[in-house]
Each structure stands twice: as C-alpha cells, then as structure tokens.
Amino acid sequence: MRLSVVIPAYNEESYLPDTLASLGRLTKKPDEVIVVDGNSTDRTPQIAERAGAKLLRIPKTTIGEARQQGLLHASGDVVATTDADTIVPRLWLARIEESIAPAHVVAVYSGYRVCDGWFPYRFAVNVIHPPFFSLSRFWTHPIAPGQNTAYKRDAAIRVGGYPVDFQSAEDIEIVYRLKKVGTVVYRKDNYVTSSGRRGDEGIRLFFRMAKGLWLYYTTGSATTFSFPAIRTRHRTKTSLT
C-alpha cells in the first residue's frame, strides 16, 4: 500500500526541520510527504522543499481546510497526519501499516507526549491524557489527535473528509465520521512527541480546552473556537524508537 504523510504548517521554521528529519529516520519510508503551507511568512516553504517534501501552498485558513487539502492532494492509499512541531518514532509508519492492513479497519490513532514547557501542561498530557486516549476508542467520538492519526484515503473521502469550517476538533470529527463505516484502532505503543509550546498560555489553556470540548460535544461544531498560534521554540531534541 502507498503511504502519504500530511503536515499542515504555518510559520514553522523553528520546528519543521526536526519533524521532517524524524520522518527521514523511519524504518518504513512514506511514498510522499506533503506540507500544507498556510501562506507562511517565514522560511517554512523553503525548508519543506529542501527536505524533498511536496509543498502545497494555500491561503491562511482553518486547520480543517488545511488537513482536507492535504487529504485531497495525497496519492497514498493511507494518509498519516502529524503536526509541524512533532517528532515521530522510527517505527511509526510500520506500526500504522500493520494496524490498518485489515479490510475492516479504516483508521488507526495513538497519543502524543510533550517533553518540555509548563509543568502542569506536561503533567496533563503525559499522565492524565493517555487513559482517555485509550478509553475513547469505545466512544462514538474517539479522541484521536491530529498529530498521530492515519486513515484509508478512500474511506475518508467517502465520509466527506474533514469539516473545512472547523477551527479545532477537526481530528476528532473525521474519526467520528470514519467510525460509522469501519473499525477504528487505537495503538498505545505508537506515541509521538510534540512541543510543549501550547502550555505557554498557562492556566488559560485549561479553560480554553474545556470550553472547546464543551462546545464541540454539545453542538457538534467547532467553527468559532481555536487555539492561539504559539511559535516559541524551547524544545530539546528527542530521540524516539
């Protein structure tokens, strides 16, 4: 099967090189890497092209639209998504390919960890979140993070792909849609590592996250809620297996 990796990016020159380097260390190489650039004003496009990624330039838009454009332009049978501030483990795609191979499986997801930043945020992500990632596979709306989800492209197209007007929760929504047409698998051994920059908001982040989840789960929409674009670089290099 052909494997595509899609990375939405906006002004990610500080993080994108490490993300692309981690993809280069994969034991199972992707057939293509697509960086969906939302009209960055820094060196993000040049970094993507220099690394051999396919650059898809679009106007600055919602995260839902960015991921949807990546899906539509991908040529792979399977599309794996991650973020521009994320390092994937060497076996990332090999594990994805193994889990998604059965005909009845339409998607596979795992969690993420952060290795730096504000301690309460690190504690929440690294200690509190993992049980919810696992348990949510039994829910109608699994908590599948956009930086660590893969799905069969034809199934994703069939269910309409991502909600292009969503400012957040687009990752949860597409897996909710996919679960209606097949099996969604959770792998606890395929975590990725993301930057802790979101924790730079401090306590406001937890109120923001609670509000966002409440709006999504009560209205089924996330068109008016988003997270601020934080581009502070403070992550140390991380080696994953």
Automatic annotation (TrEMBL):
Q: What is this protein called?
A: Glycosyl transferase family 2
Report whether Transferase shows up as a keyword of the record. Answer: yes
Where does this polypeptide localize? Cell membrane
Glycosyltransferase 2-like domain mapped to chain residues? 4-158
Predominant cellular place of this UniProt entry's protein:
membrane
GO CC, alphabetical? plasma membrane
Family matches, as InterPro entries: Glyco_trans_2-like (IPR001173), Nucleotide-diphossugar_trans (IPR029044)
- Provide any one GO MF term from the record: glycosyltransferase activity
Alphabetized UniProt keyword annotations: Cell membrane, Glycosyltransferase, Membrane, Transferase
Q: Does the keyword Iron apply?
A: no
One Pfam family from the UniProt entry?
Glycos_transf_2
